[in-house]
Each structure stands twice: as structure tokens, then as C-alpha cells.
């Protein structure tokens, strides 16, 4: 279990920062799978430091609730019009039944203690016809990220955190949600240079690094730093992200 009230809370904002343009591209991408009417009320489940929460309010025009269990992560979230940050978890969402039109779960699913109960809660708070966007990795669709080459066990560690597509779909159906037929490929990320990627990763704001041996991290970052000196401005490819679209029946 990653302690987001500990060291991670002190590095998360800098290590996971995304630009306003990236937020706008992500939220526009999410909007393509949401009901067309506006305004829509949104739950940002596992909102962390509110990277997306204000952008969701701007995109969808309704009330947005950022639900986050870690006190220090919520404290770091900037206030914004239409946004409320609430203490809670996927397994115990502090909202009434049928109170939101969209639920965003952005790289939080693998942290849930009880994924089935969490998805049942998502189904409960969604209005009929509402949509849940499960942006996560899947163990059978793992990307080959550039930085894995520096940390030999990182890809295996990451894959072990996630369930497969079929497992996620089965949990969603058991919880009362209807998955769309295909896994969505989506991204709002800017391309980044080798140097920029190193600077972000060296803060160790990814949960992967909480599970790697210290010696492997030290050696890996040393090799990475040497490559930055050789080719700092090379732009790295952007990998599409994976997302399941889940719907509450009307």
C-alpha cells in the first residue's frame, strides 16, 4: 500500500504535474464518452491533488466532487469554482445515490482495497445512463515505457499491480455496470524530452518506485542521468493510454 499521506504527498505535485493544455485535451477526450447534455455533475474518484478536478468543472459545467482518502493530497488541491473536495474512498463514496453523471477514475483502480465494492459504489452514485471512465493500465496491455530500460524489474512490478481487461470487465458487470465493447486508446499528454522525463521521474512520484529495491533505483537513475547528458533534448514518443468505458443502465 502506497502512503499518500507520507513522502509521496511532498513530491506528487511536481512529479505528476500536467499543463493546462494537457488537462484540456484529457477532459475533451473524456467528454466524447459522456452524455451530450450540459451541465453534467462529475465525481473525480481518487482526485489526489486535484490535477483534473477543476478542468472537469470547466469541461462539463456542473458540480465536481474530488473524493480522496489522503488528507495531505486533498490539502494540496487548489480550490476552484464548482469544485468540492471530500474525504472518502472508492469503497465508501460520500455522495448520495444517483448524484453524478460521470465518474472519472484516473490511475486509481489499482490502489483500491476492494475493487468490486468500489465499482458497486460507482454504480450507486451514477445516475441512470451515466458513464464511468476507468483510465487504468491492464496487465495484458502494458506499454513498453522508455524508462523501463533503466529499472529491470519495473515493468514486472507495474504489471503485477493491475488486473487484465477481462478481469476488469467481469468486476464491472458484477457491480451492475455495462462495459463498452472495446478498450479506448486515449491521451492528452505533451511529448517530453529525455531531460524533462528524467527530472519528473527522479522525484519518484510514481507508485512503481515504492516497490523497487533501493539499489536498483540508485543504479537506474545513475544510468538515466548519464544518458541525459548525452542526449538531453531528444523527444520521447507519447504512448496512448488505456481506458474502459462503463455505463449504468438507464
From TrEMBL:
Return one Gene Ontology term, BP aspect: methylation
Q: Which UniProt keywords apply?
A: Methyltransferase, Transferase
> What region holds the Methyltransferase type domain?
43-133
Which Pfam families does this UniProt record tie to the protein? Methyltransf_11
**Which InterPro entries does the UniProt record give?**
Diverse_substrate_MTase, Methyltransf_11, SAM-dependent_MTases_sf
One GO molecular-function annotation for this sequence?
methyltransferase activity
For this chain, the family text in UniProt reads: Belongs to the methyltransferase superfamily.
**Protein name as it appears in the record:** Class I SAM-dependent methyltransferase
